[in-house]
Write a structure and sequence with these properties.
With 86 residues, the chain is α+β, with helices and mostly antiparallel strands. The protein has one domain. The strands form two sheets. Strands 3-2-1-6 form a four-stranded mixed β-sheet, covered by helices on one side.
Length: 86
C-alpha cells in the first residue's frame, strides 16, 4: 500500500523582469510579458496545468542550478499551486 504524503505547495510570483512582467517559481523566471495582467494570466494557466489529473505523466522541470530533470508522476500526485504578486 502506498503511503500518503502531504501535497507539495508551489507559488508562482508575479513581478517585473527583463523589461516587462513575468512570473517565477523560486529563482526561475518565465519569459517577459507586456503587462502585469498578461503575466498573471500566464501564471494562472501554468498553475492550472499543474493540477491536471487523470493519467500518469512524465514531467520536465528546471532546478535552481539551471539543470533540467525528468520525473514520472502518478495521476493523483499533483502539487497545490497558487499565484501571488510580489
Amino acid at each position: 500500500m502506498k503511503e500518503e504524503s502531504a501535497p507539495m505547495h508551489l507559488t508562482y510570483h508575479i513581478g517585473r523582469h527583463d523589461g516587462g512582467w513575468a512570473y517565477r517559481l523560486g529563482d526561475v523566471w518565465s519569459e517577459p510579458y507586456a503587462s502585469h495582467s498578461d503575466a498573471r494570466a500566464a501564471a494562472h494557466r501554468a498553475a492550472r496545468r499543474q493540477q491536471l489529473e487523470g493519467r500518469d505523466a512524465e514531467i520536465l522541470f528546471q532546478s535552481e542550478d539551471g539543470s533540467w530533470h525528468r520525473e514520472h508522476v502518478e495521476a493523483g500526485d499533483r502539487p497545490e499551486v497558487g499565484v501571488a504578486d510580489e
